[in-house]
Amino acid sequence: MAWNEPGGNSNDPWGRNEKDKGPPDLDEVFGNLKAQVDKVFGNRGGGGKGGSGGASGPAMSGIGVGILAAIAFGVWVFSGFYIIQAAERGVVTRFGAHTVTTGPGLHWHLPWPVEQVERVNVDQNNSLQLRSQQVLTSDENIVEIDIAVQFNINSAEDFLFQTREPTRSMEQVLESAVREVIGRNTMDFILTQGRGTVASETSLQIQEVMNTYRTGYEVTAVNLERAQPPEEVQAAFSDANKAREDEQRFINESEAYRNEVVPQARGNAAQLLEEAKAHRTRVVLAAEGESQRFSDLLVEYLKAPEITRERLYLDAMGSILGNSTKVMMDAGNNNLLYLPIDNIGGAGGSQNGANPLPRQVIPTFEDSPVTPGDFSTRSRTTRER
């Protein structure tokens, strides 16, 4: 049965018997434990039961100590192996001083207390935000902003050894950079098209200071999440925004009207220029043709003056009388017969079914009879003069 069961047990490892009711003596416990170890590695006390026990005791004790030392040394050496993950960097220090920075994989270093390794996650994306910060602009207005910066670690040794509180430094540098960038710009620019510019300039400013401080941080992004005037002036600012939007709308409408009218006016101007050029070309060519015709006619006139004169007269009278709507005829009794051809063929005559107008007889002077031959002869003579 077990040594601690009631009824007593002589195999009590602490050397107690059933009559002992109190707690074990610590000196006795450690003495018994030492005796058990001596039995395993050799008896140093001599006088053992065997005759050779005293001679082999020291040798067996030295072997045991050597085995324990070898095991302890192996464990100590094996404790120097370590594994660095893909997102980590291992910073090895020897008595507190940085010696080397290792990348991902299996590595070994001198075990504690000579060297130690500290793992730093360089791929972790950290963020820092500033909420409801009121900043003064260059035109002496106040703008309230929310801004966030995202960053990671690009130098594990700088992060651990160069700055005591790098995150606190990042927060202070962020606030300082935001005030500097916004202080160089106007409120309208920041609230409208300048958000991207403010974010990029702030990122460059923060990174420059972080490199100077050697914090080991690398800025990956800066986001200007909100930018607006303080709540006390929101109403007035809304009215100003509406006025600005109306102004932009009017500008767009005027530009659209200009884009519609100007091309049309340019087209009309180009059309007038082309028509003028065409008219100029037509007149010039007509004048050149008339001059050429006159030159050709002059040649013919010099060859036969009388015939040419007669032909010119007939052509002129034909062109004049051909456009006339009145016809005069010689009736042979010293009276001229007048025929209103325009009234005869017009709407007032045949279309209404009425009779044509009666002919009109124009009397002539009896004391100076005129014959057709005399008329034409006198007319030509007068023209020649």
Features:
single chain, 20% strand, 385 residues, disordered C terminus, three-stranded antiparallel β-sheet, alpha+beta
List the helices and strands and how they pair.
Blueprint: H1 26-41, H2 53-78, E1 81-84, E2 88-94, E3 97-102, E4 105-108, E5 115-121, E6 126-136, E7 142-153, H3 156-161, H4 166-183, H5 187-191, H6 195-213, E8 217-228, H7 234-303, H8 305-321, E9 326-330, E10 335-340, H9 341-344, H10 347-351, E11 360-363, H11 372-384
Antiparallel strand pairs: 1-4, 2-3, 2-5, 6-7, 7-8, 9-10, 10-11
Strand content bin: 15-25%
Shape: rod-shaped
Q: Which CATH architecture of one domain would you pick?
A: 2-Layer Sandwich
Task: State Rg.
Answer: 63 Å
Quick one: how many beta strands? Answer: 11
Q: If helices are DSSP runs of H or I spanning 4 or more residues, what is the number of helices?
A: 11
Order of neighbouring strands in the sheet with most strands: 3-2-5
